[in-house]
Structures are given as C-alpha cells and as structure tokens.
Write a sequence for this structure.
C-alpha cells in the first residue's frame, strides 16, 4: 500500500503506449489515476477533463498515467471511440491491469465499492519517485480537475520555497512560513517582518 513520504510502489505494466515502469518516469512528477472501467459515462467525462488540463500539467513537468482493470485492446478501442465521438485525443498512457497487480499494490480495489473494478484514485508522485499525496473518490462521482492542478502546484511550490500553503491556496496567494521550533525562534520570528497572526501562524508573499 502506498504511504505519503515513502517511495511509490514500482510497477512494470503494459499500456496503450507500450511497456512502462514507474522508474522510467524518474525526473518527472507523475499523476497516476484509476477509473472503474472503459466505455462508462463518468470515466469518459473524466478522461476528457484530464486531457483539458494535460498541457498545463506538462508545463509543470508532470506526466499523466491512467489505469483500469481492462485490456489494452479495450483501452485502445475506448480511446478511438472518444476521439471519433467526442473529438478528444487521449494522448497519455493507460495501464492495462487485468491481473490487478498494480491496482492491489496501490490500494485501488475497495470491496465496499467493487471487487472487480478500481475506485477513482489519484496519486501524486514526485520527480524522485516519492508518494506526495493521495485522493480517493467513489465510483459514482467524478473528480475535480482544478483541485488536481491546484495540489500539484502547491506541492511543487512547497518544495521550491520550503513553505506550506494554507487552505484554498492558489498561486499568487500568501504562503505560510514554517513555525519556529524553539523559544528563541519564536522571539526571532515575531521580529522578522512577516504578517503574523501569532508566533505559529505567519504569512508571506513569494
């Protein structure tokens, strides 16, 4: 099972773009997401929505990878159908996971929803292969693409500037300065010119 802050489980899978290992993507951020099945309505809307944010994710050095417990032939037929009927080209790889090996290693199977389909998971893996965040959605409800973009930007901003981000943070908003860890640090913090509500909650502009 994946754990935030630990290496993401390695996989070696067949995809619509050929064989793929997670380690092949080292140096890029990866958003690995699962969907219950090909040729289903909610999943189709989600894949179209993922395509719509894919260019912005690419600018963030982030690779999309989809997955469901379907064959490569099913994936390819669905990709072709979406292009023909909806005019959308799903250009990122989709893992075929008929043996559920990847799904089980990532905890994508939730028996309360289904024993044979993956729920809607989203895993944020950084450029060093470390699991950074995880989102879980039920089979009945599609995901929020603005939140997926927002969280990717927040994680990368935290890494780059060694800061935290407050609730509902968007790029351009103030960020949180890490809280001091010593009594001396508290006194120093209150004199450093940040916008402080108290010693443990201080904001700054980037």
């Amino acid at each position: 099972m994946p754990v935030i802050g630990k290496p993401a489980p390695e996989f070696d899978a067949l995809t619509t773009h050929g064989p793929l290992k997670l380690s092949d993507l080292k140096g890029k951020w990866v958003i690995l997401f699962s969907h219950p099945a090909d040729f289903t309505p909610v999943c189709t809307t989600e894949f179209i929505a993922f395509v719509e944010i894919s260019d912005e994710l690419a600018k963030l050095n982030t690779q999309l990878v989809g997955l469901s417990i379907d064959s490569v032939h099913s994936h390819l037929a669905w990709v072709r159908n979406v292009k023909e009927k909806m005019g959308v080209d799903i250009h990122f790889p989709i893992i075929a996971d008929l043996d559920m090996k990847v799904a089980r290693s990532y905890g994508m199977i939730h028996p309360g929803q289904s024993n044979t389909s993956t729920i809607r998971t989203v895993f944020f893996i950084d450029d060093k292969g470390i699991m950074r965040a995880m989102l879980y959605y039920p089979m009945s409800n599609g995901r929020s693409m603005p939140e997926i973009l927002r969280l990717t930007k927040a994680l990368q901003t935290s890494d780059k500037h060694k800061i935290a981000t407050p609730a509902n943070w968007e790029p351009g908003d103030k960020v949180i300065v890490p809280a001091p860890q010593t009594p001396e640090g508290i006194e120093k913090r209150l004199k450093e010119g940040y916008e402080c509500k108290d010693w443990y909650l201080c904001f700054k502009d980037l």
User: Anything to note?
Assistant: Residues 12-143 form a domain with the Glutaredoxin fold (CATH 3.40.30.10). The beta strands are 12-15, 18-21, 29-34, 62-68, 94-96, 120-125, 131-137, 175-177, 195-198, 201-204.
